[in-house]
Write a structure and sequence with these properties.
Catalytic activity: 4 hydroquinone + O2 = 4 benzosemiquinone + 2 H2O
Bound molecules: 2-acetamido-2-deoxy-beta-D-glucopyranose, copper (II) ion
GO cellular component, one term: apoplast
Number of domains: 3
EC number: 1.10.3.2
Strand order of the largest sheet: 10-9-12-17-14-15
Number of strands: 32
Radius of gyration: 24 Å
CATH topology of the largest domain: Immunoglobulin-like
Subcellular location: Secreted, Extracellular space, Apoplast
Cofactor: Cu cation
CATH architecture of the largest domain: Sandwich
Strand content: 35-45%
CATH superfamily of the largest domain: Cupredoxins -  blue copper proteins
Amino acid sequence: MAWILLLLALCFALLASSPSSLASARVVKHTFNIQNLTVKKLCQERVITAVNGTSPGPLIRVHEGDRLIVRVFNRSPYNVTIHWHGVFQLLSAWSDGPEYATQCAIRTGQSYTYRFRITGQEGTLWWHAHVSWLRATVYGGLIIYPRQGRSYPFPKPHKEYPIILGEWWNANVIDVVGQALASGGAPNISDAYLINGQPGDLYHCSKKMSLNFHGKLIHELAFYESKPYAGTYKVKVTRGRTYLFRIINAALNSQLFFKIANHSMTVVAVDAVYTKPYQTDVLLLAPGQTTDILLTANQTVGSYYLAARPYASAVGVPFDNTTTTAILLYNGANSSRPQMPTLPAFDDTETAHKFSSNLTARVDSRGWRPVPTEVDEHMFMTVGLGLVSCGAKATCAGPLGQRFAATVSNFSFELPTKLSMLEAHFHNVSGIYNSTLPDSPLKPFNYTNSSNRLNQRLTKTAKSTTVKELKYNTTVEIVFQDTALVAAENHPMHIHGRNFHVLAQGFGNYEPSRDRDKFNLVDPQMRNTIGVPVGGWAVIRFQADNPGVWLLHCHLDVHLPWGLATAFVVDNGGTASSTLPPPPSDLPKC
Ligand SMILES: *[C@@H]1O[C@H](CO)[C@@H](O)[C@H](O)[C@H]1NC(C)=O
Ligand SMILES: *[C@@H]1O[C@H](CO)[C@@H](O)[C@H](O)[C@H]1NC(C)=O
Ligand SMILES: *[C@@H]1O[C@H](CO)[C@@H](O)[C@H](O)[C@H]1NC(C)=O
Ligand SMILES: *[C@@H]1O[C@H](CO)[C@@H](O)[C@H](O)[C@H]1NC(C)=O
Ligand SMILES: *[C@@H]1O[C@H](CO)[C@@H](O)[C@H](O)[C@H]1NC(C)=O
Ligand SMILES: *[C@@H]1O[C@H](CO)[C@@H](O)[C@H](O)[C@H]1NC(C)=O
Ligand SMILES: *[C@@H]1O[C@H](CO)[C@@H](O)[C@H](O)[C@H]1NC(C)=O
Ligand SMILES: *[C@@H]1O[C@H](CO)[C@@H](O)[C@H](O)[C@H]1NC(C)=O
Ligand SMILES: *[C@@H]1O[C@H](CO)[C@@H](O)[C@H](O)[C@H]1NC(C)=O
Ligand SMILES: *[C@@H]1O[C@H](CO)[C@@H](O)[C@H](O)[C@H]1NC(C)=O
Ligand SMILES: *[C@@H]1O[C@H](CO)[C@@H](O)[C@H](O)[C@H]1NC(C)=O
Ligand SMILES: *[C@@H]1O[C@H](CO)[C@@H](O)[C@H](O)[C@H]1NC(C)=O
Ligand SMILES: [Cu+2]
């Protein structure tokens, strides 16, 4: 007996003395099988690409400090890669995932194992395919809990639910984007939005199905558990308890407003960074962003819709204007029609901006990093659409008889096709990319003046693979400036391999003399994706402390293949701990 106690005491002593709590870090291993899956949605049977027979795919749970090892088998007909959205990938750039950026695709019948450690971030992230539009159905949540012995910087919730917002096409998404890229025009809009894979009660077809089910009314049906069809996701709560909802916008092309009828929410984290608690009755999530909220079930016992529909910032651009719902169901509730929240108007930029600019970081929490004060590299990047002229044999279904393009500082990005940029960088192969992205547009103009709309001198752009090289540890400040050349629009800009501080956001042209005063250098929100206000700007800052090749791109999948992207090539530092290791032996070959 005594020796057991002694042994226990010894173990505790060892654990306690371990300086970085490495003792609690685990290795978490998973296998992903990517393959065809037949699903029935909106009354139609479809074959989609999915991981392990579900979409959303497996929810991965790790603790901060863990190593994650995921072996991905591609048994689908398409080339695939998996990107771990928002994960820093410190010295593990080979596992970041974007096709032709950090790896070539995993071909049909082949596999690749992603290996990385998750450090310095806690909260909700996600994973998704990073080839063409496959992420429409190949995606899932990634939850990072505090490591053992640590707690949240907020009261422990009774229970937690992932709420993953998706976007659904009845057509094969590869055909949808393929058709657009062939024609030079815009892709077809989606047919529905989803909450945890389900469209919800407001779609015509779900109603029809519901009515057909034993002839019961749809609003009554909403209360039966385990129905033969699953059209609406339900969140069960008990009155008086507090829940953590981990909300992820995995939609392809839509920023989404999110509300819960009759309930207010308290935001506690975004993009796996803790925020100061922020109470609100509406959220806005751009594709790529996550928001963790606390919800107290303190309303009358009953049922309430959770609902999401788009924030469509571009005037005159067609969009899917449907609404997806799930049901917040109190224990003991009667089967009555759920309360429906009033969502903001599709073009409610005021509400969008208020939510997006009001959040602040929790500077007393783990994961916070003070804003770097000395800036080494000031960059001013325009983000927006442009046009490429119609080649002799091309079809040109875009404006002015040209083809849609999208640009960063008027460079329209094209992925290489022979080798990934990271391999080219690592092995010093030239001809794959040019490191000539200027620090500001070569031809400045009045970016947000609507009289420049479809001005062919300004919309004209060209395709290239042009990136920005950064010395290790460079502190970079970027002003993202929206343009109004084709349509002013809020572009959610995502940078791989890091978070950044969001110092300020505003409308019109960025004016340093006026706008630098608005910088929040004390407690700005930290994110991996920022929606640049429509017809406006956002300023971010970060330190390039992670060697590798990191994409920077718009997270609307309609704009990414048009070229709204570039990359940072971050050199090694001078030490072992700042040098990217060689590629793993199973890295897919082009
Ligand atoms: C996926 O499926 C494979 C094989 O069916 C299984 O071994 C694996 O555990 C599953 N992975 C996850 C994350 O559920
Ligand atoms: C997967 O589905 C596609 C249609 O989307 C089909 O062409 C292909 O044969 C299917 N592959 C397998 C292995 O079932
Ligand atoms: C896109 O929509 C058009 C018009 O409705 C339709 O003819 C076409 O087949 C659709 N494309 C795809 C790939 O579904
Ligand atoms: C929910 O809010 C609506 C107005 O937004 C109100 O009409 C309704 O009575 C409320 N329901 C409950 C159960 O509080
Ligand atoms: C419910 O909780 C919210 C905070 O989440 C609070 O603002 C609100 O007043 C509470 N309502 C009731 C009826 O207790
Ligand atoms: C959605 O768009 C369609 C087609 O433009 C239109 O008929 C419908 O009224 C719109 N619905 C809403 C809720 O705005
Ligand atoms: C449920 O319905 C019954 C009968 O309609 C009613 O007496 C009761 O108050 C209802 N309970 C709740 C929680 O709404
Ligand atoms: C929050 O938004 C309101 C309305 O836009 C604004 O007055 C207030 O200053 C904002 N607060 C912060 C902290 O940004
Ligand atoms: C840019 O255009 C706007 C109108 O959209 C105008 O108010 C502003 O004065 C212009 N700025 C410059 C520097 O010309
Ligand atoms: C690099 O720049 C040169 C000169 O402008 C151009 O010819 C070449 O196509 C560019 N290469 C890539 C990969 O963008
Ligand atoms: C990079 O910067 C960090 C802090 O800003 C510093 O601690 C570190 O030593 C630097 N690394 C190198 C290799 O200069
Ligand atoms: C799949 O990827 C390989 C390697 O990158 C490439 O050669 C091939 O063309 C790709 N196939 C398709 C259909 O894109
Ligand atoms: Cu965009």
